[in-house]
Structures are given as C-alpha cells and as structure tokens.
Amino acid sequence: MSDDKWIAYLILGIIAYTIVLIYLLEQEPILANQINNSVIIGLLLTILIKIK
Asked: Model pTM?
C-alpha cells in the first residue's frame, strides 16, 4: 500500500514540475535549464540509492 502512495506522490510531483518548468521556460530559459539539470541529477542519485 505504501508503494501506491509513493507512485501517486511521484506522479503529482511530475505534473507540478512540468507545469513550473513550462512557465519558467517562457520567462527565464537559462534558469529553467539549470533547474532541469539539477532535477535530473537528483533523480539519478535517488535511483542509485534505491537500487542499493
């Protein structure tokens, strides 16, 4: 059951992240790219930690 909640929060987070990133891409493209790169690195580190 806790896995279902984790997936639901992940989906909500992805939706919120996408909305914010689209807004930032229109306003400040450089800032949006920096945030995008940071999030990708963070997700990769999280995946590596969960695998171990």
From this structure: 0.63
